[in-house]
Amino acid sequence: MVSRTIPVDPFDLVLFGATGDLARRKILPSLYRRFLAGQMPDTARVIGAARSELSNEEFRDLVREALAEFVSKAKTDKAAIDAFVAQCSYIAIDAKGDGGWSDLKQMVREDAIKAFYFSVAPSIFGALADKLRSHGIACDNSRLVVEKPFGTDLKTAKKLNADLAASFREDQIYRIDHFLGKETVQNLMAVRFANVLFEPLWNERYIDHVQITVAETVGVGGRGSYYDKSGAMRDMVQNHLMQLLCLTAMEPPAAFDPDRLRDEKLKVIRALDPVPLKDVVRGQYKSGPEPSYIEDAENADSKTESYIALKIGISNWRWKHTPFYLRTGKRLTKRMSEIVVQFKETPHSIFDRDDGSTANALTIRLQPDEGIDLSVTIKEPGPGGMRLTNVPLDMSFADALGADDAEMPDAYERLIMDVIRGNQTLFMRGDEVEAAWAWTDPIINAWEAQGDKPKQYPQGSSGPEEALALLLRDGRRWRDLED
């Protein structure tokens, strides 16, 4: 399988927060890899902007250091790095004052696509957007990229949207969620809507339940004070897991068009049932090989969850009787993100009950090994009667692409190039963000009113025992994280 690289038009990308961690780990390396692949033209420019007083050469040294640390050896090419770094420049910017804005206006070109990437705290989104517009730097064809969190509740999300809308139109705003840039997430749409095999079965008549898991082995050390004001519900469920749920559950859009696709996702969010506290399990990792959550958060009285599991219902014709189980947590036994679509048993089995047959399951793996597999029941080879076994029809993207292309593009690579192309398909719309918070807020408010602390769970486990009971009471089990 050979992937095609289609170059984008010349652009100026102004990266606010260019000296920050996200810029170093993800944004700058992703731009370099697109340059190496031939997608980023030689006339494109990356303009770093931050508070620090740096010369162009000092910023280019920072870019080189980021590429050395976060780009694989296989993608390291000295000539390409030199050429890419030569396209980078820097300007010191005062987000709330006037310092640097006139110089920035002189730097960006009128005849190139202008993209402004806010890799900064959301608290200054509005100020930066206003400066870009009031200084005449942004134009009607400019694109604005903003990172999460998109608010901390419905009220703050509405204010953030209003602040951005004061300077940019909705069709200019790209709210980035890196989960949507993953190859497997996009293949979920292809599997559903480009194959006659699955869509007729994609409903409550044939699907028993859906599990969405994002498990992490790391804790919150280093960002504990920030995370303690957020928690797994705000940090992961309201955005990342919500997007995976929407893509799994949405109706087929009339066309593969940004607004039509996002219209269907919005319908899913608005159809989500309220979640009672009995269908929510919150946890905190205990002390183990590494410090406990409360030690990482430096808050002995913390009631913030590092783990959450929920049972969610969707009140529409397609999914009325099919529960969706979501879970995410820190310091778990394995780093894994996947969607498991568990089909129902056959209506009648002609084989013995203990023959080893199980229901089919479609597993979409987002990380660490991106791919899709479908479990099917077959006869076990050899004599001795009709013995059945379950085997996967497996497609690993690394294997399918071949050894030379085994390194999958980072999600940020696709998303940044989509910004330059003006394609909003994989980005969240303002009303979608607000609808997600409108569903999330009552759940958070309910447990805050109750005042219970999260359940403790061992590091390196699958989470609190109570999360197992969430499915066991329905006669189901979580997929083992070790599978």
How much of the sequence is in beta strands?
15-25%
CATH homology-level superfamily of the largest domain: Dihydrodipicolinate Reductase, domain 2
Globular, elongated, flat, extended or rod-shaped: what is the shape? Answer: globular
Q: Please name the CATH architecture of the largest domain.
A: 2-Layer Sandwich
Family: Belongs to the glucose-6-phosphate dehydrogenase family.
Catalytic activity: D-glucose 6-phosphate + NADP(+) = 6-phospho-D-glucono-1,5-lactone + NADPH + H(+)
InterPro entries: G6P_DH, G6P_DH_AS, G6P_DH_C, G6P_DH_NAD-bd, NAD(P)-bd_dom_sf
Pathway: Carbohydrate degradation; pentose phosphate pathway; D-ribulose 5-phosphate from D-glucose 6-phosphate (oxidative stage): step 1/3
Write the layout of secondary structure elements.
Layout: E1 11-16, H1 21-36, E2 45-50, H2 56-70, H3 78-86, E3 88-92, H4 101-107, E4 113-118, H5 125-134, E5 143-147, H6 154-165, E6 173-176, H7 183-193, E7 207-215, H8 224-227, H9 231-249, H10 258-271, E8 280-285, H11 293-297, E9 307-312, E10 324-329, E11 336-343, E12 361-367, E13 371-379, E14 388-396, H12 397-401, H13 411-421, H14 430-450, E15 455-457, H15 465-472
Parallel strand pairs: 1-2, 1-4, 2-3, 4-5, 5-6, 7-10, 8-15
Antiparallel strand pairs: 7-11, 8-9, 9-10, 11-12, 12-13, 13-14
Helix pairs in contact: 1-2, 1-13, 6-14, 9-10, 9-14, 10-14
EC number: 1.1.1.49
Active site: 240
Catalytic activity: D-glucose 6-phosphate + NADP(+) = 6-phospho-D-glucono-1,5-lactone + NADPH + H(+)
